[in-house]
Amino acid sequence: MKEHFFAPCPRGLEAVLADELRGLGAQDVRATDGGVHFCGGWPLCYRVNLHSRIASRVLWRVAASDYRSEQDIYNAACALPWGAWFDVSRTIRVNVAAIKCPLKSLDFATLRIKDAVCDKFRQIAGERPSVDTHAPDMRIHAFLDQSRMTLYLDTSGEPLFKRGVRLHTNIAPIRENLAAGILKLAGWQPGTPLLDPMCGSGTFLIEAALMSLNIAPGINRSFAFELLKNFDAATGRAIRAEAQAAQMPVAELPIYGSDLYGDALKAAHRNLDEADIRQAVDLKQANALEISAPADHGVLVANLPYGERMGELKELEELYPKLGDMLKKKFGGWNVYLFTSDLRLPKFIRLSASRRTPLFNGAIECRLFEYRMVAGSNREK
After folding, report:
1. Strand 59-66 relative to strand 92-98: parallel, antiparallel, unpaired?
2. What is the pLDDT along the chain (381 residues), one digit of tens a residue?
3. Domain with 19 in it: what CATH number?
4. Residues linked to residue 150 through DSSP beta bridges, in sequence order
5. Which region holds residue 295: left if phi is over 0, alpha if psi is between -120 and 50, else beta?
6. How many independent structural domains does the chain possess?
7. Which of 122, 154, 186 is the last residue of a domain?
8. Which structural domain range is residue 191 located in?
9. Residue 199 maps to which CATH number?
10. Domain boundary residue among 154, 188, 203?
């Protein structure tokens, strides 16, 4: 049977995700704001969860209907065969999102969906599932617009950017699927030299190494679809075994990272160790303004520091022109991608951006600036 799915992703990466899903065999792929609709069978759902580097989740559409009131929402949810999909012993959580919804309270709509699921289980099993808002077995998602409700069951569980390895970091890093998407937007390919001179805990480096070694991003984790009653364990095992067989042995790669701060590098080392890819990445402690290109061509990518206080903003105003000078002098032949929420960057770095891609890091609007470093031609007068 062909099922309908929706894969949310960081805003700005919808087209990249759509291409990835087509490559995995998805049908009827349609990008929309914040994600991609697609169709396919359950083996495709398993495969997308295991292999997608860009999706945040894979949601299975179980219902879509018109509504006018909270009672309509309750009735639609109560009509569904929840007991056919998962056992009453599974804990649940309901999430509701909306655009132009006429209802007064989304919290009340959330409560009505939870009540409907629990009441349906009481009717068929004589007991109700427990609610767990922190780590539920089953996540139920509802999306409401002006007149229509769509209900989904989350087949992923924990978000897919959680790759199944423990993350060591001193500050909030860029999310893994956003980092992977930026590498795709940059046109980086395995085998091309890659440098992150402000690597922090190493997210760009790890994602690049996983791509280079053909390691499925979800190979070390479990998924919510494994708890569904219709889960085909034999098919799931076969898809995992196929992914493991396709992995390449860990070897030294032209992937380089550096950071000014020793604590950040310690976190990067530990994260690479957790992912069992330490040998693949060359790490060193260095000031980004003093490094040299490790090859005559390649891709440089960096998640630039951001400032919120006046003193930090002043420091960035001083950093940007120095960074532009360094790139011009030392990185001719390289393509540079700077990710930042500071939209003043082009004014101060004084290089001509060849592309500016709007992206969102959560709710924060950011830009990915592309600079093609041809020696002698990039400096703005």
Report:
1. unpaired
2. 899 999 999 999 999 999 999 999 999 999 999 999 999 999 999 999 999 999 999 999 999 999 999 999 999 999 999 999 999 999 999 999 999 999 999 999 999 999 999 999 999 999 999 999 999 999 999 999 999 999 999 999 999 999 988 778 867 679 999 999 999 999 999 999 999 999 999 999 999 999 999 999 999 999 999 999 999 999 999 999 999 999 999 999 999 999 999 999 999 999 999 999 999 999 999 999 999 999 999 999 999 987 655 567 788 889 999 999 999 999 999 999 999 999 888 899 999 999 999 999 988 999 999 999 986 544 444
3. 3.30.2130.30
4. 64, 143
5. beta
6. 2
7. 154
8. 176-215+250-373
9. 3.40.50.150
10. 154
**Residue 80 maps to a domain:** yes
Token couple for 51: 């292999």
381 occurs within a structural domain: no
The two tokens of residue 46 are: 């398993």
Q: Are residues 182 and 89 in the same domain?
A: no
Within-domain flag for 163: no
Residues in a beta bridge with 6: 37, 59
**Radius of gyration from C-alpha coordinates of the chain:** 23
Half-sphere exposure of 165 (CA within 13 A, CB side): 22
Q: Is 0.90 topped by the overall pTM?
A: yes
339 and 288 Cβ atoms separated by less than 8 Å: no
Q: Does 161 reside within a domain? A: no
Instruction: Strand 92-98: give its sheet, edge to edge.
Output: 27-32, 35-40, 3-8, 59-66, 148-154, 138-144, 92-98
Tell me the three state secondary structure of residue 367.
Answer: strand
Q: What is the residue type of 265?
A: L
Let me know how long the chain is: 381
DSSP, res 226: G
